[in-house]
Amino acid sequence: xxxxxxxxxxLSVPEGAIASLNCTYSDRVSQSxxxxxxxxxxxxxxxxxxxxxGDKEDGRFTAQLNKASQYVSLxxxxxxxxxxxxxxxxxxxxxxxxxxxxxxxxxxxx
Amino acid sequence: xxxVTQTPRNRITKTGKRIMLECSQTKGHDRMYWYRQDPxxxxxxxxxxxxxxxxxxxxxxxxxxxxxxxxxxFSLSLESAIPxxxxxxxxxxxxxGGGGTDTQYFGPGTRLTVx
Lengths: 110, 115
Fold this sequence. Notes:
The structure holds 2 protein chains of 2 kinds.
Chain A lengths: L3 E2 L5 E4 L4 E7 L6 E7 L6 E6 L3 E5 L2 E6 L4 E6 L8 E8 L6 E2 L3 E6 L1
Chain B lengths: L3 E4 L2 E4 L5 E7 L5 E8 L3 E10 L2 E4 L7 E6 L2 E6 L8 E10 L5 E5 L3 E5 L1
Parallel strand pairs in B: 2-11
Antiparallel strand pairs in B: 1-3, 3-8, 4-5, 4-9, 5-6, 7-8, 9-10, 9-11
């Protein structure tokens, strides 16, 4: 079983809509959760980190964490065509390298 | 200047050649990582190092070796390159962060083609 699961997509949303990206993980002792954005051929870029249950907002981005359900999500409000990219979920625990999901491809259509 | 640099950025080589990919960082981080990325397979961890004297294998270390020459430098070697090592390679660094785990920052990547 893959430790971090993401729907590969593509997820298509119209410009201005809310994009919702989801991630589940299997290791219950995971402590930290990250969302990275990756444009084609480029390196992953950190968008959000979250460590506690609940919501964390940063501009148009909101990360949501539910440790009981082993679920983390990323909401992108007012989606723009420039948000079209692959979004990687990463999960970590102390003393180990991060575990990355395979990513969800997001396409924002004008 | 970029905090994490990788050289070369692109490399084409032939089967059987020895190749070294280099990573340098100015972030002052103790921890460094090498990943490869293939279409549809996501990021896969090759090796990681939590400090200069610490080297750990990742999920796909066969055919690769690493050297941590200093806190700021971490090199990946392919002793005898083969075509299925054609991929995009990323170096990453981290320092201990919130929650007891790390936030990783990535270099720009090296595109390696083995003919």
